[in-house]
């Protein structure tokens, strides 16, 4: 009974947060769209980047490039699209900045092939 009550109290908070990420009006957090801006952005800043994944660095860690620079991106296996992606294919990455003490990378939630 207590678990059900707790779940019913927490569920609206989670669904409200999911809907709030699409808001673009006054007070919305700006979205980063270039690598150079992502390299300066705060931790957890939402990003949508378009460019190429040019190299695999480690398991689930890749180098991404756009016209403004390069950045490391972490892409979980389940986040890849159904098609194969080469180093020349143009992709759209949706995710957030993951800032550590001396580095930044993008934690990718979605990969879209846009060629």
Automatic annotation (TrEMBL):
List, alphabetically, the Gene3D superfamilies matched. Bacterial OB-fold
Q: Where are the transmembrane segments?
A: none
List the InterPro entries: BOBF_sf (IPR036700), CarO-like (IPR005220)
So which residues are the signal peptide here? 1-20
Q: Name one Pfam family in it.
A: BOF
Domain of life, per lineage = Bacteria
* Keywords on record: Signal
Extract the PANTHER family matched here: PROTEIN YGIW
Q: What is the name of the protein in this document? A: Stress-induced protein YgiW
Originating species: Ectopseudomonas composti
Taxonomy of the source species: Bacteria, Pseudomonadati, Pseudomonadota, Gammaproteobacteria, Pseudomonadales
């Amino acid at each position: 009974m207590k678990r059900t009550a707790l779940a019913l109290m927490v569920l609206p908070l989670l669904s409200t947060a999911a809907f709030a990420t699409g808001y673009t009006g006054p007070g919305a957090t700006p979205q980063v769209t270039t690598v150079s801006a992502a390299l300066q952005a705060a931790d957890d800043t939402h990003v949508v980047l378009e460019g190429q994944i040019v190299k695999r660095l480690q398991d689930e860690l890749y180098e991404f490039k756009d016209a403004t620079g390069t950045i490391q991106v972490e892409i979980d296996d389940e986040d890849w699209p159904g098609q194969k992606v080469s180093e020349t294919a143009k992709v759209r990455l949706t995710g957030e900045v993951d800032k550590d003490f001396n580095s930044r990378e993008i934690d990718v939630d979605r990969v879209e092939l846009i060629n």
